[in-house]
From TrEMBL:
MF GO annotations: glucose 1-dehydrogenase [NAD(P)+] activity
Source organism of this protein record: Paracraurococcus ruber
PANTHER family found in the cross-reference section: OXIDOREDUCTASE, SHORT-CHAIN DEHYDROGENASE/REDUCTASE FAMILY (AFU_ORTHOLOGUE AFUA_5G02870) (PTHR43639), SHORT-CHAIN DEHYDROGENASE_REDUCTASE FAMILY PROTEIN (PTHR43639:SF1)
Annotated ranges, domain Ketoreductase: 5-190
Enzyme Commission number(s): 1.1.1.47
Protein name from the UniProt record: NAD(P)-dependent oxidoreductase
Keywords annotated in UniProt: Oxidoreductase
């Protein structure tokens, strides 16, 4: 067990993050997952990882809270004594809104989680990741599409994630750490209903060239590939997982 690499997945209790945790456990990683408030789902995902042979630890930690981020990395150090890779998956859309009707509070909440929290996790990870380590940021196709009429505030936060990924990849290369992003399109998770649009996928399916939404496991496969040595010469990449959207 001691030679298993350790992966930290933010927002790993549900959705894409949970799919990453489960797949990583099956591929030989030990896993730490954070969650915001849904302890039951996080415990369920951690139990699934353990059933697949991994050591797993679920931590309640708001990624937008710098003290919680510091405490998370301290717990990883204390429990595992190493960290080999980070998946910055935790993300929120905030409510549906045009930019004109959006509020400062929406922008602040979404950017605190999706950008400031992600940057804080990158900083903390870079302090401990060994050569050969990797970071994968879960961005969104919204960064390129723009989120018009739904959530420009969210799309703009993911644009920041894309730019951070490109810049950080260049900085981290010197220490042998690769940094990439996955840009999911419309993936079947609870995110859409949480934003007040439970029918969003069926409404937008006509905009997807492959004519279907994606599964969380399909996004997780791309994340696991970018984490793996199979992607050893890939850094600064933004990989759409979007059925062509
Ligand atoms: P989801 O089903 O809503 O799950 C979100 C996960 O993130 C949950 O585990 C949640 O914890 C956690 N989380 C939320 N805010 C957090 C915070 N402040 N601190 C720590 N954890 C937090 O979302 P998803 O669809 O899997 O999305 C995952 C990522 O993919 C996000 O970055 C999202 O922007 C991106 N994405 C999703 C889609 C899509 O179509 N679904 C498309 C493009 C990009 P709790 O369980 O405790 O609430």
């Amino acid at each position: 067990m001691a030679d298993r690499k350790v992966l930290l997945v933010t927002g790993g209790g549900r959705g894409i993050g949970a799919a990453v945790v489960r797949l990583a456990a099956a591929r030989g990683w030990d896993v730490v997952l954070t969650y915001a408030g849904n302890a039951a789902r996080a415990a369920e995902t951690a139990a699934a990882a353990e059933a697949a042979g991994a050591r797993a630890l679920a931590i309640q930690a708001d990624v937008g809270d710098p003290q919680a981020v510091a405490a998370t990395f301290a717990q990883v150090r204390d429990r595992f004594g190493r960290l080999d890779a980070l998946v910055n998956n935790a993300g929120i859309t905030g409510p549906t809104s045009t930019l004109r009707e959006s509020t400062d509070a929406m922008w602040e909440t979404v950017f605190r989680t999706n950008v400031f929290g992600l940057a804080a996790c990158c900083r903390a990870a870079l302090a401990v990741l060994p050569p050969g380590g990797a970071i994968v940021n879960v961005s969104s196709r919204a960064a390129a599409i723009g989120g018009a009429g739904e959530w420009v505030h969210y799309a703009a936060s993911k644009g920041a994630v894309d730019t951070l990924t490109i810049g950080l990849a260049k900085e981290a290369a010197a220490q042998g750490v690769r940094v990439n992003a996955v840009n999911p399109g419309l993936i079947e998770t609870e995110l859409h209903a949480a934003a007040g649009m439970p029918d969003r996928l069926s409404r937008l399916v006509g905009s997807i060239p492959m004519a279907r939404g994606g599964q969380p496991e399909e996004a997780a496969e791309a994340v696991l590939w970018l984490l793996s040595d199979a992607a050893s010469y890939v850094t600064g990449a933004l990989l759409p997982v979007s059925g062509g959207r």
